[in-house]
Amino acid sequence: MGDPRKPRKKWQPPGHPWVKERLIEEMKLMGEYGLRNKRELWIAAAMLRKFRHRARSLLALPEEVRKKEEQALLSKLYELGLVDKEATLDDVLSLHTKDLLERRLQTIVYKKGLAKTIHHARQLIVHGHIAINGRRVTSPGYIVPRSEEDLIGYAPTSPYFKKGSQE
Questions:
Q1: For residue 137, what are the contacts with CB-CB under 8 A and spacing of at least 6?
Q2: What is this structure's pTM?
Q3: Domain positions in the chain
Q4: Is 105-154 CATH 3.20.180.20?
């Protein structure tokens, strides 16, 4: 079963560590999305890899078997905000790491204007100034579902919180 104090890794490093084009692209993404280290980027890539793998395996199934599982995958990705309502498996296969990084709490806090910079957004989240529906969230890498996107604001105990700014 495994030691509960040593959880399984959520990411896998790149196969070849010194490809110049990939290193440049990773540094651009780290700066654009305010990531702490490349591990956060690799976690997002691993999540997308799992979604794409599941979509590819569904394409190999017969049509009658595939329908139900395809709908479950697409509804999950729609709830996460990665695809549109009328998406197909081809849309899942065309997802990029940037699409998932756009759904992180840190990015959404910055885009909503609660923080001045992407790095300020990370600091606000880690220090407990950001809440979703009144519940404090301190993980900048939290993937925000569509249902919670409008509920993001300052925590009631935060000095940034003003009466009437939540609703």
A1: 105, 125, 130, 131
A2: 0.91
A3: 20-101, 105-154
A4: no
Sheet with strand 130-132: strands edge to edge: 135-136, 130-132, 152-154
- pLDDT at residue number 69: 94
Residue pair 12/42 in contact by the 8 Å Cβ criterion:
yes
- Helix 63-80 vs helix 38-59: angle between axes, to the nearest 10 degrees? 150
CA triplet 130, 133, 134: central angle to 5 degrees?
Answer: 65
Least Cα distance to 41 among 120, 109, 141 occurs for 141
Residue type present at position 30: M
Distances (CA, A) of 156 to 3, 50, 134, 135, 161: 38, 37, 7, 9, 6
Of the chain, the percentage scoring pLDDT greater than 70 comes to: 96
Taking the chain, what is the end-to-end CA distance rounded to the nearest angstrom? Answer: 46
pLDDT of residue 126: 98
Are the C-beta atoms of residues 107 and 33 closer than 8 Å to each other?
yes
* pLDDT (tens digit per residue) in 59-107: 999 998 899 999 999 999 999 999 999 999 999 999 999 999 999 999 9
